[in-house]
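Deliverable D5.2: sample structural annotation.
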Amino acid sequence: MSAKAFTAADAESANLVLLGEDKGRQAVHDLITAYRANRRSGTAHTKTRGEVRGTGKKMYKQKGTGNARHGDRKAPIFVGGGVVFGPRNRSYDKHVNKTVRKVALRRVLGDHTRDGKLFTLDAFAISDGKTKSFLSELKSVTDADRKVLIVGNFDDSTKLAARNVAWTQLVTATDLNVEQLLLSRVVILVGDAVEVLAQRTA
């Protein structure tokens, strides 16, 4: 059973809101930027001269030695001293409003619909949990051989069968995000995934 192409008419009948090509670009950009920023750990950290270990005693007297004036050895110009303007522990988290997230999802779903990347399927399940069975079933559904995203509710055996296939991903319609859509060449909506996405974009 092959997957059926999802069209704008199908979206309209399912009350799935899609955006045209002239809206939502900034929302998509903001959301992807936030996704990537929120994955940064922000743990790079250097110590200033006030934090490095060592004594604060003056190296030698101020005058009479013929050397330059110095305080302690924790100054940034010395090996083992502090670092000036180095990275500090910080959070890179960016917040994106719900409205912007919704607009971005509408825009990407609209682009995928126009580009013929969205397909629908009544059911998709692998009962024996074998990768070979998963690939065989997937081949009967679509001829794509890379970057396939399958959206729906799956049992444990289906997840087990799919986990060794690096170029496919199973995700629920509730957890589906814009980045996953953008990284996929083919998106297959299984079962009630269209209705769930319609609720998310309403």
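Annotation notes: The first strand starts at residue 4 and ends at 5. The two ends are 30 Å apart (CA to CA).
The annotation will be released with the project's public dataset once the embargo ends.
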